[in-house]
Amino acid sequence: MEKFFDTVNHDVLMALVAKRVKNKAVLKLLGRLLRAGVMVDGRLQPTQIGVPQGSAVSPILSNILLDVLDKELEKRGHKFIRYAC
């Protein structure tokens, strides 16, 4: 889970969000946020995977994605607690 935000597949995430959000403008904005890029050593690098850490939407996006994991663990009978610190 340590590198969770760095390894999120944009297509998988957007498909999960699109199941819940029908507003095309919101989906387009979210896609732009995910592909906005990051500054590394003063240069803009494109982002093809990952979610911006510290953004206002990253906790919501992680919960949408991790909900799939939670349901699979529950289906398999695992007991667990997921929390953020």
Mind explaining what this structure looks like?
By secondary structure, the chain is mainly α. The chain is built from three helices and two strands. The chain has helices at residues 10-20, 24-34, 58-75; strands spanning 38-40, 43-45. β1 and β2 (43-45) form a beta hairpin.
Outline of this structure?
With 85 residues, the protein is mainly alpha-helical.
SSE map:
Blueprint: H1 10-20, H2 24-34, E1 38-40, E2 43-45, H3 58-75
Antiparallel strand pairs: 1-2
Helix pairs in contact: 1-2
Number of helices: 3
C-alpha end-to-end distance? 13 Å
Helix content: 40-55%
Q: Which structural class fits the helix and strand makeup? A: mainly alpha
Low-confidence stretches: none
Strand order of the largest sheet: 1-2
Mean pLDDT across every amino acid position? 90
Q: Roughly how many Å is the radius of gyration?
A: 14 Å
- What is the H/E string? HHEEH
Q: How would you sum up the global shape?
A: globular
The major β-sheet equals: 2 strands, antiparallel
Count of β-strands: 2
Strand content: 5-15%
Descriptors:
single chain; 85 residues; mainly alpha; 2 strands
